[in-house]
Request: fold
Amino acid sequence: MFFDQLGLSAELLRAVSDLGYDTPTPIQLGAIPPVLAGRDLLAAAQTGTGKTAGFALPLLQRLSAENPHPRGPRAPRVLVLVPTRELAAQVGESFDDYGRHLHQRTVLIFGGVSPRPQVDALRQGVDIVVATPGRLLDHFAERAIDLSQVRYLVLDEADRMLDMGFIRDIRRVLAVLPKKRQNLLFSATFSDEIRTLATGLLHVPITIEVAARNAPAELVEHRVHLVEQGEKRAVLSHLLREVASGQTLVFTRTKHGANRLAEQLARDGIQCAAIHGNKSQSARTRALAEFKEFKVQVLVATDIAARGLDIVELPHVPEDYVHRIGRTGRAGCAGQALSLVASEERDRLRAIERVLGRKIDVQPLDRSAISFQPSDRPAPAGARGQGQHPPAHGHRTAAPQARAPHRDRRHAGSHRARRA
Reply:
């Protein structure tokens, strides 16, 4: 099936064609018709499947098909709630791209930047607001935004918002919205919490699952190397220099860890940048731009870019692996998810394998080719003083066992399938 068979307007089809797309993805095939029909939607779609177009295209069409609606200042008709600034920017860009031949106006609302430009933009009139919950509530409290005209609500990456503790903010937003509206909930996983939220939010929804529950991207190759915890930095540096042929995303658990790892990799001669919540919005935008433009090979990130693939440890919740690998194998491209796994993380690795429904290949390392510095190795048990470091907690000095995943995520392959 092609986009021109989905009932989209000529203006939207022109925009899709301008972007080089002709064949809709499964989530778009499943989502666009019911959204056009005004139905509530509960959709499970992992990142990279084209879900943004699955709600942006039909909502733009519904807006344009309504009776002429005077664009009142501060009163959007579409509200899209997202967990992070970066996702807000991506979703806003998609609305602009798909609506390029229409006349809707989109405003982004998120924290970390001055609120004044956002207030000024709202005063000029707005049709679509893409917002993070906290800053949206700030603007609402200051009466900078009027939510009484919202007719369409989208919760994008709803499970991520719940994980980040936004449930109270979401409920506060829901409480001030008009009761009569169309609701769309998109999530990478259908956890019990998501189903509970959906029960209270959606009215007789259409449910779509484009893949098995919590299924990872099919184009991603999963691999594991077993290393000692203290050897991970050296192993990672070696893999980035000698093995990785494309761009690589490396996820850390903490902001400090992201900075420290980026500095260490830079000392090893690897072009890299770090991105996390303590960075200013301009610094984060610049780092992402440099990564997308191939000015840096490696982007070290915390949960901003996904659910925080850990260099230090495997994800505590196995479903988080779905989100972490979701930054590669996107839009028809192949990719790799490489985990450096420590012995104390063996149980987490097994839990992830249960989510995947299969074993992850464990591949040997040519340790003779890796230059380990003294600080890269855990000290033998009881060894302290002269040039020695205290042993890391939980480390064994015997042969390495299962160890922590550094999600080395590569976008391999330069050919992108022409899909939205």
Q: What stands out?
A: The domain at 3-209 is CATH 3.40.50.300 (Rossmann fold). Confidence is low (pLDDT under 50) at residues 305-313, 327-331, 377-420.
